[in-house]
Amino acid sequence: MGFLASNVSQPNLAINDPEDMPMVLDDISAEWIGRAIGIKVDSIKVDLVLPGTATKVLISIDYGSRRPKDAPQTVCLKGGFSHDLRDLALGLAYRREAEFLAHVATSPKLQMRLPRVWYAATNVRQNQGLVVLENLTATGCTFGECTIPLSVQHVGSGLQQLASLHGLTWGCPVGKYPWMTSANPIQEVAGAMFSKQYWEQHFSEEAVRSQVPADMLDRTRMFAAFRQMWSTADPKLRCIVHGDPHPGNLFFAPGGELGFLDFQAVFSGSSMHDVAYFVAGSLTVEDRRSSERHLLEKYYLPSLHKAGGPQLSIDQIWDDYRRHQLHGFFWAMTGTLMQTKERAAAMAARHIAAIQDHNTLKLLER
After folding, report:
1. Is residue 324 part of a domain?
2. Which of 128, 157, 207, 323 is most exposed, with minimal Cβ within 10 Å?
3. What pTM was computed for the model?
């Protein structure tokens, strides 16, 4: 099961399950939780509900007079419990995460630190995907925060883990991963975020506009640059990517080891999408400038080859790395419905500096 936060047996899997799944919080019962984790449950208690793109429900479990060995006392149920969000086509994201945890995270070759997975299921008819994970807080883990950059050592560890995912799935053959989409979730929402109405409303606020260089406030130019990046992505670098590896989607084990969360944005795309986005968004500007080439050469590229990917040199991927810096600009376009102002500002500053340092716009406009 890869390199998990705790030892684990195979999870219960119910991909494309014809049986109805919980769709609202009131549907969650002790009987259903018991079926999900494969252990008879006496009763449950919902301790905390955390709304978001996906709803996270922290649940305490009572097994009566006898708790079986290895049975969890508390779990995190994650999925689509908001009708409004499912109507925004997020059902695909919920199913995507469950499918990733079922089909990729179960590989013994995957060297990624992930939460223990007890259950992963999808129901296409209901447009629902649910996963039952270990409650990381209960095991002493802490979570990353976008306003707090990572150390160079942590980014090196993260690159090794991303390289394991990329190498394991290199080429992303359709026959092996028929469920995987090549649709970049960011690309799917780009039309709305680059609309004249959204752009002008978002950047009408002085505090937001002042963070962005004048040449990046040209909506037509920036949208053209994104389309150029997507259309010229090197197909030889195709693999399954995390899609959104920023500090807020990380956790840290009690010993300080870094792990990854939230695989709702996984898709088949360029490995440099993850690499450029993770490095630029996780390090201080100064640390990135002084260490990014070293990190790619020492941590990412050797780990990629070890995991089954090609043996690439830094020169072979460097221009793709520079082009894919542009993804981070979406943080400058992110409104408060999606992130706090503080997080968006911190991430945008790091990514804009990387776009400038790498002359990304000029490279895409050549």
Report:
1. yes
2. 207
3. 0.93
